[in-house]
Each structure stands twice: as structure tokens, then as C-alpha cells.
Fold:
Amino acid sequence: MDQTIHTPAALGARIRQARKALRLTQTELAEIAGTGQRFISELERGKTSARLGLAMHVLQLLGIDLQARRRGSRA
Structure:
């Protein structure tokens, strides 16, 4: 599913959606990602201080590609 993400909250919502689609709890995802459940919770809530590298790792585990493109250009 393609989705434009403009805010940390939108990214968190996409992560939550993917986690639930895989039927994983926050705790289970945290164990797979090698992080704490609190980090997953903060990431899903769009907390702006979440570590980017760890967030990218969670995205990879959920099968989500993060792509950067110039606004107004076609995907």
C-alpha cells in the first residue's frame, strides 16, 4: 500500500497498521527488532525523539520501504 507520510505521527500510524496486519503485539515486534516495547509504542505514537536508525530497522522488519522523492514528482 502506497502512502505519503509527512509527519512522525503518520509514520507511526503506518507502522501500527503493518504490525497489526502481521498480528504482532508491540512486545513481539520489540523482541524481533531487538528493542523495548516502549520504543515501539513511542514510534507508533509519532514521538519525535524516536531514534531514526532504529525506526528504519523496524520498518525493514515490517516490510515497509521508505522512499524519498521530490514533492510533485511522480512515484
